[in-house]
Amino acid sequence: MQHIQEKIKEFILRTSYVSGDQVNNDTLIFAEGIMDSMGFISIIGFIEDEFSVEVADNELVESNFESVDAITNFISRKLKVGTVG
Amino acid sequence: MDSKHIKPFSKDILQFENIEDIANQISGKIKDDIYSVLKRKGAIIGISGGIDSSVTLGLTVKAIGPENVIGILLPEKDSSPDSKKKALELAQKFKVQTIEEDITGALEGFGCYKRRDEAVAAVFPEYNPTDYKMKIGINQSGLNQFLPPVFSITIISNEGIEKSKKLPIKEYLQIVAASNFKQRSRMSMLYYHAERLHYAMIGTPNKHEVQQGFFVKNGDGGADIMPIAHLYKSQVYQLAEYLGIPEDIIKRTPTSDTYTAEQTQEEFFFQMPYHEMDLIWYGLENEIDPEEVGKVLNKTSDEIMHIYNNLSRKKKTTEYLRMAPITYK
């Protein structure tokens, strides 16, 4: 879980050009303007490539993507479902 | 949120009280800008048979007379034949000379279609432009959230079978960049005619297109005057009625006319009907309490707040399109 969290945070910092102290795990990355539309599409692509999970249209909701924590939890849930299935 | 508007908010708040005065004011400015500020002899306008270019042409004819205005039709192989028909009807109504310039050859030279189709085929390997039409669209669910939109691509076979997928960033950017050759080629051709005649080039975007970034930088965003860039879409329609724009142009659903499959502007970019978007944008600009706007539009305060946030985000993230080149001292 921590590994996923670090990768997500590192990706956001690398692609948003903001400094590390501006993004905490609970920072609302879209509401606070850290990431924009291109950033959102990039995150989806990164998750799909890096963790081999597919993001369905009905999963594109705030509760899955609003922060580093939300994205981490979303990926963890998807990976668990994948393992069980 | 403090309210600073004077008139009480209502569904009619954007209704012009004296449409004749408004048309006279705008056409007066157009005339002054063409002759006195720009020192040009006439006006060139790209006409598509859509409401915005039609109203722009009507206002310009009112300003300087039909003999000093030329309407340019700029079709390419993906354009709807209906666009040409309606543009010619408009020109006939306003007694304006037209020139038709098919830009398909220029676009083939730039590799517009080939580059776009390569990106589409990267998402749908079965895609080829002979057997399929294509379009890109925005997900509608994002409107009520603090999330930016996600674009999807749809291909439609000749048999009418549709398939859609989320667009990955690389392919999204390539499709948009390739398609933008269309607007930039049109701008080049319009300026060719403007310069050879020493005319001004009149741009046609409305307020939403400018403020939300629904235009191509150095494409349809390039012009000498943009006479309706301060007007809400419903105000453009009011002027259309006043100027006598042909009824079938007024009734036509605004489309992007950019991709091979038919697509409305609402589906491609705006995500809501223009009469709602006008009122919500007005509410946002005038800091009207979302609850007040919601009552008029039959939406909750939260829904309006989300749309306010979405529109603010669109404006902020498209600021680069409206910026002049950055220069240094």
Fraction of residues in helix of chain B: 40-55%
Number of helical stretches of at least 4 residues of chain B: 14
Low-confidence stretches of chain B: none
Count interface residues per chain for the largest interface. Answer: A-B, 22 and 21 residues
Q: Note poorly predicted spans of chain A.
A: none
* Main pleated sheet of chain A: none
Strand order of the largest sheet of chain B: 3-2-1-7
| Alpha-carbon distance between the two ends of chain A | 19 Å
CATH superfamily of the largest domain in chain B: HUPs
Largest sheet of chain B: 4 strands, parallel
State the name of the first-level CATH class of chain A.
Mainly Alpha
CATH homologous superfamily assignment of chain A? ACP-like
Oligomeric state, counting identical vs distinct chains? heterodimer
CATH class of the largest domain in chain B: Alpha Beta
Radius of gyration computed on alpha carbons of chain A = 12 Å
Strand content of chain A: under 5%
CATH topology-level name of chain A: Non-ribosomal Peptide Synthetase Peptidyl Carrier Protein, Chain A
**Topology order of chain A in helix (H) and strand (E) letters:** HHHH
The sequence of SSEs of chain B as H and E is: HEHEHEHHEEEHEHHHHHHHH
Which descriptor suits the 3D outline of chain B? globular
